[in-house]
Amino acid sequence: MTQTVSPPAALPVDDAIDRLGLGPFQWRLLAICGLTWAADAMEVLLMSFALPGISAAFGLGRGSAPATLLLTATFAGMLVGAVFWGWLADRVGRRTVFLTTVTLGVVFGLAGAFAPGVTWLVVARFLTGFAIGGTLPVDYAMMAEFVPTAWRGRFLVYLESFWALGTVAVAALAWGLSTAFEPAVAWRWLLALAALPGVVGLVARLGIPDSPRSLLARGRQGAARAALERVARSNRTALPDAPLAVPPPAPRVTPAALFRGAVSRRTALLALIWFGLSLGYYGIFSWLPSYLRAQGLDLGAVYRTSLLLALAQIPGYVLAAYLVEKVGRRATLVGYLAASALGAYLFLLADTANGVLLTSAGLSFALLGAWGALYAYTPELFPTPLRTTGMGFVSGMARLAGVLSPSVGALLLTGQLAVALTLFAACFAVAAVCGWAIGVETRGQRLPEAVG
């Protein structure tokens, strides 16, 4: 009698990723995404360091409309780019957007260095922001979808920590250039050199396959298996000889799906968190070099202080990477946001140079820890067909806050420090309440696949 052999059971993609384990592939992906993330941090914070030189070159007054517009342009571009590229990555795949956004970011970043006037520079910064606005939703979706469950939160915080490295790099570069060139010339070198790390990131990205989750969601089972086999070869493990479980067919996903069903509440609360945290963070740090300059510090001292504040971010990330796995994403996020609200008031009360330095360093520590936890938490709350769309939307809310923050942050220069910092502290407190109201802990949980 012939015995029928049952075919092997279908293998869920989460099981496949977990069985392939953590290895060289994930560490390489972290280094590649991290390099581009650091380069993006340089581009986002660039104008706050370049503005004194640009003002000298084009005769802009402190706090003038053109100066504020230059600080706003990058964020305006990122607002449009985050929503557009996030949606496109869910439609055509992560890798295509992964490569396109970096290429455009380098081109437009370099274009700004050759600006003959303020209008050219504003347009170049807007287009740079449009390009790099797509990096956030795609990089975090890629990292979340390639890392085993037990390590996912930690790796997402590790990726966000490259922001601190970019901040350190742009502060150090601005400081070095300020000693070599006059401010009216140094800013051009700063814009040009800040664009170059993206070239290295682009070349490195060519060897990264598309996300197997995204491929499966788009019906490309063969390509998804090939992507997992590349991970297996890199990690020196074996992919089980079983077909991949295909998620149930979903209707064509549009951004409107973010506001239907169970995901709608998460979308709304996350949007408020991203908006509040971003308004306070950029409102303080986009104007901080100019604020310190207005307090009488010379340009070299301003850049040295900015470098020290950037270094204070690193232990904030390190602790966040530990806490998201030890106590969970939600509690870590809420704790850091509450500490940020307190830190804003301590900064307000500081009345000595050392007090300002210590309280701003503490605020930098708390804010970047909050960002680390938020970047770990957010992609885990959206299902695969909506992950980059959702990341794009909530990060778009952050970019909207970035557009508004230079105008609000200008209060720091007009002597209304108490008003500005009270508003920022309130933003952090409201964000903390919203974080707790999400009511879901994703630590150790598999990524949701279906839109429900």
CATH class: Mainly Alpha
Name of the CATH architecture: Up-down Bundle
SSE succession: HHHHHHHHHHHHHHHHHH
Beta-strand content: under 5%
Radius of gyration: 22 Å
Q: What does the largest sheet look like?
A: none
Q: Could you tell me the mean pLDDT?
A: 83
Helix content: over 70%
Task: Please tag this protein with its features.
single chain; 452 residues; mainly alpha; Growth Hormone, Chain: A; 18 helices; 76% helix; 0% strand; globular
Helices and strands in order:
Layout lengths: L12 H8 L3 H35 L6 H28 L1 H20 L4 H15 L2 H12 L5 H29 L2 H13 L1 H9 L6 H6 L3 H15 L27 H23 L2 H7 L4 H28 L2 H21 L3 H29 L5 H23 L7 H21 L15
Helix pairs in contact: 2-3, 2-5, 2-6, 2-7, 2-8, 2-9, 3-4, 3-5, 3-6, 3-17, 4-5, 4-6, 4-8, 4-9, 6-16, 6-17, 7-8, 7-14, 7-16, 12-16, 12-17, 12-18, 13-14, 14-15, 14-16, 15-16, 15-18, 16-17
Tell me about this structure:
It comes from Deinococcus aetherius. It is a single chain. This protein has one domain: Growth Hormone, Chain: A. The protein is 76% helix and 0% strand. It has 18 helices and no strands. It is globular and about 70 Å long. The termini are far apart. The mean pLDDT is 83.
In short:
The protein is mainly alpha-helical and 452 residues long.
